[in-house]
Design goal:
mainly alpha; Glycerol uptake facilitator protein
Length: 286
């Protein structure tokens, strides 16, 4: 009888083991450490740097359109409410689209690809290629989408002129514009780091909305955002500035974005993970 009972118990244990998931099958808890975020960022940066030319151009074009939709939301909201705060909230739509659609801005190349290059997973030439192609593609599609906005919704002309003149004329080309550009680079790169630190879609959306609000409501000097605002004003006409002024303003903004994004965020984040960085550098994959 005892032997029969022991056999039954073994059979029950075998049956339970057949349906009980093993440790390998258990879902892993999300690792939110800086090291895990850096590891993911290096892999994502390497992937972006290895894109073919067609994919690279298409991704940049879509990124400009996404931000153009954010500019559309900002202009509609500010025209209706005359509130920069509400306009900033609406502008976050563009960054949410950017995050969920996997498109890309020039300034998103400050953290992920730079980290991949420093970790010896890619070459500097690939980084320069990514920056230049993405920026040109962002601006090209942004020019088109802002033309469509101003042409299709002439009621937004007044708001478009106001916002465009702010970036081209009001903040000038000196210390104020540069400081706002540094802050713009910090915000967009921080958004990228936050999104790499979590696999949650909700967390990515929150980070995108946060960045969009700060850039829109704070009128931070982000080279692509500012360029699209200036394009909209130029499409309206009698903007009070021309494309020459846009080149100077956009170039100054890009320099400040680089200082803020790379100098104040990327480099400091890399100092958080010296051990992981050293391990990645010891396994170069170029």
């Amino acid at each position: 009888m005892a032997q029969h009972d022991s056999v039954d118990l073994r059979e029950k244990d075998d049956l339970a083991g057949a349906v009980r998931p093993s440790e390998e099958d258990q879902p892993e808890t999300e690792d939110l450490t800086p090291e895990s975020a850096f590891r993911r960022s290096v892999e994502e940066g390497r992937r972006r740097l290895r894109r073919g030319p067609v994919v690279l151009v298409a991704t940049g074009l879509v990124g400009g359109i996404d931000i153009g939709i954010g500019v559309l939301a900002l202009l509609i909201t500010e025209a209706a409410t005359h509130s920069a705060l509400l306009g900033g909230l609406a502008f976050g739509i563009g960054f949410i689209a950017l995050a969920l659609a996997r498109s890309e801005l020039f300034t998103e190349g400050f953290l992920l690809p730079v980290g991949a290059v420093i970790a010896k997973k890619a070459k500097v030439s690939s980084l320069v290629r990514l920056w230049s192609v993405t920026l040109v593609a962002n601006l090209a599609s942004g020019w088109v989408i802002t033309y469509l906005i101003v042409t299709g919704l002439p009621s937004l002309s007044s708001s478009a002129l106001q916002v465009g003149r702010y970036y081209a004329v009001s903040i000038g080309l000196g210390g104020r514009a540069f400081s706002l550009a540094v802050l713009g680079g910090v915000v967009i790169t921080l958004m990228t780091w936050m999104q790499q630190s979590s696999e949650s879609i909700f967390a990515r959306v929150v980070a995108a909305e946060m960045a969009g609000f700060l850039l829109g409501a704070g009128r931070l000097n982000h080279t692509v955002v500012a360029s699209l605002a200036m394009f909209a004003a130029l499409h309206v006409g009698h903007a009070g500035f021309g494309y020459g002024r846009w080149v100077l303003a956009a170039g100054w903004a890009a320099l400040g974005n680089l200082v803020g994004g790379i100098g104040l965020v990327t480099c400091l984040r890399l100092l958080q993970v010296p051990h992981r960085l050293r391990l990645e550098r010891e396994r170069p994959e170029i």
